[in-house]
Amino acid sequence: MRQRKLLLPGREKGRGFQKATSEFEKVAGETQRCPCCQRRMFNRAVNRLSRKRPPSEIQDINVFASTSQQCVTGAVKWSISLENLLEDPEGVRKFREFLKKEFSEENVLFWLACEEFKKIQDMQKLRDKAKYIYATYLSSTSTTQVNVEGQSKLNESMLDQAHPLMFEKLQEQIFNLMKFDSYKRFLRSDIFLKENGQKVSGGSEETVAKRASIVYNT
């Protein structure tokens, strides 16, 4: 009886696929089985080929990524993302120094206060911290009020029913404001360039931020 070839959906021309197909056809030629059995046989052939791959090939990408992250430290890491900068105490200190010159240090202070607020578990301490954040950064009478939408919806009566996420939307607004505005200027500032031993002037010299964007494709 003439053997019919099973047409498989999504057939590719990759070397691994061709090996699996050859093994499948070899086994299928030795015995007659239903299409369901043939499909299972093909899947087993693909699995066997996958198990035969050298571990080095499978782990190369992960090892490279892990090694690259370990090698990135200091201001080079700050230039990759605002998140990285805010995770580093020294990065926060330099960023605060820059924002102070721009008269907007309250933005990062508010963000940091909200991060601390979300970690508080004691209810009384949570209420006290909520009142402090409101009075310092959200009250219309505060000299360090942040520029966000929605603070008018908060009032002191709500602070007695404080919960860890009550400032989350306002914190997100401030984060995006810093990310797309002051953070970009910080990467071009004298403070950042000096931290990396870069010359403040000199258009031909490539900045650390630019080099990092090329290396990490960000």
Automatic annotation (TrEMBL):
It holds the Pfam family RGS. InterPro entries: RGS (IPR016137), RGS10/12/14-like (IPR046995), RGS_sf (IPR036305), RGS_subdom1/3 (IPR024066), RGS_subdomain_2 (IPR044926). Keywords: GTPase activation. The keyword ATP-binding does not apply. One of its GO terms (molecular function) is GTPase activator activity. It comes from the Eukaryota. Residues 81-194 form the RGS domain. This is Regulator of G protein signaling 10. The lineage of its organism: Eukaryota, Metazoa, Chordata, Craniata, Vertebrata.
